[in-house]
Amino acid sequence: MANSVSGDSVVDRVVRVISAFPEGTSSLQLSELAGLAGLPLTTAHRLVRQLAAHGLLETGAGGTVRLGLRLWELVNRNSPTLALRQAAMPFMEDIQQVLNQNVNLAVLDGWEALFVERLSRRGSVANRARVAGRMPVHISSAGLALMAHQDKALQAEYLQQFSDPAEKVSADALRALLSEAAHQGFAQLEGVVDPETWGIAVPVLDRRQHAVAALGVVVPLREMRLQALVPALQTAARGIARQLSGA
Description:
By secondary structure, this protein is an alpha+beta fold. It contains nine helices and nine strands.
């Protein structure tokens, strides 16, 4: 039900408040939160008070507001990614032990790769993929591996709306990348996000051979060894798929 001058509903405004926290920011002043959510200060104050009463937000001294533990609890209790992360973690740990580099796990959400898990250790290369972070499909090896193994109708819809504000990738080049990833069974991108790294990802396939997730690594350009990396990733991806099938 819309009950504001702008026509947005209470749910719309609650989502705007919760979504307003920038990545890496643990707390905001109430006035900052209101500005980021695009709400009047009085409205933001009322919503924060109500959400804090349910533990979804927490308020502190000086008017600070942070996301509440209750929100984390609810999200993790029944999240559809929970079974995926549990199935993938042993295989991700094995890959990391062998390669000593970053390992990540992503799912497709709209036209983006949403990263649901990442393992890294001291000395590994920079990895822009963060847990709960997103990357457009066309600049992520995980995104390409995911999109290359979806229904043709979904791929066509994606390509029809595709545009690259940076004008680095054309629609034709993207089609070629997706075709290559589908044919080879893995996706690779050299120096796209970081000029010193190479991203490789393989799909985790369900019984219909559609990608439910992508398992990827980020390695230094100088240590790029497709003949060693891809078989290890594909073996791990098949193991994850078996675990998910059994669950």
